[in-house]
């Protein structure tokens, strides 16, 4: 299979009150086209930092990220803006990531408004009309046209996350980074959102980087799994090998918590 993304020897540290904290230490991996790569680890293990590096929201201290044939940290601002079409994100907290004062259809349209020339095949019959486009995207994530004109506070947490997902898929990105997409939701809603993300990935052929502290969720979503601890990858395996006796002690601890 073809590599969509290659991360090579990423390092990232932060200064915390004069002390250097190494959030990501020598991390390398590949994501193949159409694959879901899961990243699991406890709080503070460096998962979100890794996600932000892949999205070029932060610069690494050293290392490279190749998306298709481009090294994203070498891109000029205009080239990076262009490349952003290929990588989108769904964050943990849809309340923070959606503009509270905008009706949701306007939030859903933001990425497409930034890329007026983009028209994914599933929007070809509606792209001429912003409202029809938003309605179609909302329908794809299980919301109704009646939700369009509501503001985020008039929706449930699960519905808000569906809006964030509609926005995330709107450009048909090659890679969707999902950073703890269900952690802010009620347990009863979490499975529905995971099912939705999995269905969209299969239907639209996107690759995912799926970040979670919940190894059960990562196991359900991912083809391949990286386990992070203190900024490093300590284990890496195909998801059907999650129970194998070859698993790292730390992976076993994560599994034991949920089983
Ligand atoms: N902007 C920042 N400034 C200073 N330190 C940071 C910053 N972002 C992350 N860190 C530190 O880097 C380390 C890794 O944090 P990160 O958020 O990547 O971990 P995580 O595994 O995603 O945890 P969580 O699931 O709690 O978000 C932590 O020690 C954290 O305190």
Automatic annotation (TrEMBL):
GO molecular function, one term: ATP hydrolysis activity
Keywords of the record: ATP-binding, Nucleotide-binding, Transport
GO BP terms, alphabetized: transmembrane transport
Record CDD domains: ABC_NikE_OppD_transporters
InterPro entries: AAA+_ATPase, ABC_transp_ATP-bind, ABC_transporter-like_ATP-bd, ABC_transporter-like_CS, P-loop_NTPase
Superkingdom of the organism of origin: Bacteria
Pfam families: ABC_tran
Family as reported in the entry's similarity comment: Belongs to the ABC transporter superfamily.
Protein name listed in UniProt: ATpase component of various ABC-type transport systems
Source organism per UniProt: Clostridium aceticum
